[in-house]
Design goal:
With 263 residues, the chain is of the alpha+beta class. It folds into two domains: 9-153, Jelly Rolls (Sandwich), CATH 2.60.120; 160-261, Arc Repressor Mutant, subunit A (Orthogonal Bundle). The chain has helices spanning 113-125, 131-158, 161-172, 180-187, 191-202, 206-224, 229-235, 241-252, 256-261, and strands spanning 9-16, 19-26, 30-35, 40-54, 57-61, 66-69, 75-90, 106-108.
Length: 263
């Protein structure tokens, strides 16, 4: 019986312009001592589990969780069982108009980067001559997502708690399209005040923000599951499959079926 590997196995290592995308397998209990990266590391855990420790804080990264380890963040890792991960290394845009990403590592199964990283993984699984261009495009979207997330976090620091709670409600259950009145009742403010303040702080209406979240989740389900289009429509809070198809095409330029066939 062959012994389990004691070093990571690189299944794919692709450079596209200034970014690098890798699919790496880590043997059980493999440990990486304290280190930092020169570039941001965007990670999608595909299988197994990863412990990410920085200072006194330890994050447990489960399968299908995604997130970012900012450049310069000192951390250590332990890989539980056999762990498989996609890593995208990407640098900052050197422009004072954009806020530096910085901060602590954040991982979640609902992280905004998850759909983009899943698309990069599918691209690496079936590469063609357009793959480098596609990976660069996805990486730029990832960087924009990081900048926006940082900007939103800075706004959140100045936002009232009720407004942050309103945004949390939109993230909590993507199978239900909450109305402004329902959210306002939950957070205890007038619907008109909620709508106006939300748009000013986050740059989108509550409806637009919620639709973007649900479409991103729908893209992930199309890419990573065999759920029917109707089931995905229901799981992402659309009235019916027809409504879902119209909205999906408006956001992506494709119907859900043509999007899945193109994977």
């Amino acid at each position: 019986m062959a012994e389990a590997p004691v070093q990571p196995i690189v299944f794919s290592d692709t450079r596209a312009g200034s970014i690098n995308c890798s699919i790496i397998g880590y043997p059980g209990d493999y440990r990486m001592s304290a280190h930092a990266h020169a570039e941001h590391h965007l990670i999608l855990c595909l299988d197994g589990a990863i412990e990410h420790s920085s200072g006194l804080k330890t994050l447990y990264i489960s399968p299908q969780a995604a997130g970012c380890v900012p450049a310069g963040s000192v951390h250590s890792n332990v890989f539980r069982d056999w762990a498989l991960a996609l890593t995208v290394e990407i640098g900052e845009i050197q422009n004072e108009a954009y806020p530096p990403v910085g901060g602590d590592a954040i991982f979640s199964s609902q992280h905004p980067l998850k759909a983009l990283l899943s698309s990069a993984y599918q691209e690496l699984r079936k590469p063609d001559r357009f793959t480098p261009m596609m990976l660069e495009s996805l990486a730029m979207e990832m960087l924009v997502s990081l900048y926006r997330d940082r900007t939103h976090n800075e706004l959140a620091a100045r936002s009232p708690r009720w407004l942050e709670r309103a945004r949390e409600l939109l993230h909590e259950d993507l199978s239900e399209a909450l109305t402004v009145s329902q959210i306002a009742a939950e957070v205890g403010v007038h619907p008109a005040h909620l709508a106006k303040t939300f748009r000013r702080q986050f740059g989108k209406s509550i409806g637009e923000y919620g639709r973007c979240l649900r479409i991103a989740h729908a893209r992930h389900l199309l890419e990573s599951s065999d759920m029917s289009i109707g089931a995905i429509a229901s799981a992402t809070g659309f009235v019916d499959q027809s409504h879902f198809t119209r909205t999906f095409r408006l956001h992506t330029g494709r119907t859900p079926l043509s999007y899945r066939k193109a994977l």
